[in-house]
Amino acid sequence: MAVPEAPRSARVLPVAFLVALLVARGADTTAHKTAWYLPFLLAVFVLPLWYAGGWARGPWRRVPLALLAAQAVVTYVPFAVFGNQWVGGASGLLMGMVLLVLPSPGSWVVAASLLGVEALLWNGVVGVPYLPAISGGLWAVDAAVNNALGLFGLVRLSRVVGELARTQDELADAAVLRERRRTSEQLATAIEGRIQEVAKHARAALRWLSTTEEDARGEVTAAGRIARAALAEGRQLRAHDPVEPLRRSEPGGVPGPLLTKGVLATVLAMFVLVNMLNVFAPTDAPGSGHQVSAPVVVLAIVVSVGIPLLQWRHSGAQHGGERPRHWPLTLALLAVLTYAQFPAMEAAGLIFLAWLAGSVLLLVRGPWRWFWFVLVATSLPVLTWLRWPAVIRDSITTTWLLYATSIGIAFGLMTYGLSLLAGLADRLDERREQLAALATVRERLRLAQDTHDLLGLGMSTLALKTDLVGELIGRDNQLAARELSEVVRLCSAVQDDASRIAAERPELSLAAEFTAAEEVLAASGIDVFTERAPVPLAADADAALAIVLREAVTNILRHSAAQRCAITLAGADGFVRLRVSNDGATPAHDRRGRGLANMRDRVAALGGELATKAGGGTFVVVAELPG
């Protein structure tokens, strides 16, 4: 199944991340002898930008392996050309593309293998990008991992919007199908089995009728008792039972909560690793000169523990994406811890600036948050300018400051995006369950409504006919035999209705219901007048009016002592009008019970109106639908 394309606005974040990363890697502090490494760097970013932007995805679906092979070529050729002067972390884009394009879990195996190749190239083939070796080697691996997870997470985030709707619909459909299956099983137990018993007793009564009237009457009495029990239980379909949770497996298009939190936690851990390397294995990069003293070590440990905990809280990984309580205080504390290392470790102590910038985007509301984001992301060059004004014009330092600014923006966006992804994944999981529960409740109400409307007439008629047969036995056995045959036929019809209820929407015919109403009412000794004009009806309107007529006839049989009934269908003034009237109405006939409510709901759903009128022992139901 193809993954839904994300809206254009949702693709801005991964593209912005890649552009900022491109600028940062282009201004890398590696001592390139010339600038002709830049075309190679641009080539590395072409395919990831294409994929992240979502433009012309056709080739990615048709020849994904060929495009990944092309990305591998532009990734590893520069190692042969530049050796350890090549840009660190660029290989992470290939790993990110593998995670995005190849199916899971195989993609993670391939990405892990590529990470092993990355470590081998830097530490065993071309040499580390800077000294000391442990710091340079681990940094190269760390940069690749962060780039890979940043690309993977942000592109996945850009798909969540489209994926959310699809997965909700899928889970809701699954919940509806489960409920239909349960209802079908319930109807089979509560109704269909009993209707089979009614038919069995009716056949037995037919056999006894010609020999022993007392035994025939006993069979008919048993049939009537079972029919009434089935009628009572069928009207009590469990529409309000507790809804069991229905979870689906993690979709292929968007990572689930566990995976997204794992990606976020991994990125946090990699940043902590680099910070500790800056403490115990300082580099010769600008701004990294410091003495490793006991206070510095203690401060670094406090920062390396406190900042990840605060960021985890801000990222919404444990709060469903909502802002945590007391967030202004925790944001201020994060800022204090972020800048606390600068006096002791200078620029190397500000590795966590990206987290602070990302937290600003997560917690501050309104357009001003982007101003504060840029202010935080660019604070490293400002602090560096204040500390070293004499050397700021040096070309290497200026390049490094451009690198630091761009990398802060890139990883600030990554922190923001991965945090959103974790929160959205949580909310996606919750909304799936909520939507499935809502779909289940709606389907239960629909099934209960259909059970009431579709089975009520048939089961009521069965009960009435068994009463009639009981009175006929011994007085007119020939007519009793015909009625018993009708009971057997009606049992089959009721079973058909019961089996149709669990379908997507039972199909009824108004013409068939007119015929059935005439037969049932006439069999009950009621004079029936019907008039049906040749009015064209849409399928949904025909089915709705058929159910209204069936329920109206059921109410006549159950709640009145009618002797006359009139049923008419006519069209006028752009409306189709079904009118059912009867005499002999009782107070129970006029009550606003479930049957009338069901009829009103069905008619209103099609833009129509259902009205009732009672008076002088007469009850009238009028349903109007747009023609």
Describe this structure in words.
It is a single chain. This protein is an alpha+beta fold and 627 residues long. The chain is 68% helix and 6% strand. The chain contains 20 helices and five strands. It has a five-stranded mixed sheet with strand order 1-2-3-5-4. Helix 7 runs parallel beside helix 16, helix 9 (257-280) packs antiparallel against helix 16 and helix 16 packs across helix 19 (539-559). The longest helix has 78 residues, at 395-472. It is elongated and about 115 Å long. The two termini are 41 Å apart. The model is unreliable at 1-7 and 245-254 (pLDDT under 50).
List keywords for this structure.
627 residues, alpha+beta, 5-stranded mixed beta sheet, 68% helix, elongated
Q: What would you report as the Rg, rounded to the nearest angstrom?
A: 38 Å
Task: Compute the average pLDDT.
Answer: 78
Count the beta strands: 5
Count of alpha and pi helical runs: 20
The helical percent reads: 55-70%
Uncertain stretches of 5 or more adjacent residues? 1-7, 245-254
Based on secondary structure, the structural category is alpha+beta
Head-to-tail CA distance between termini? 41 Å
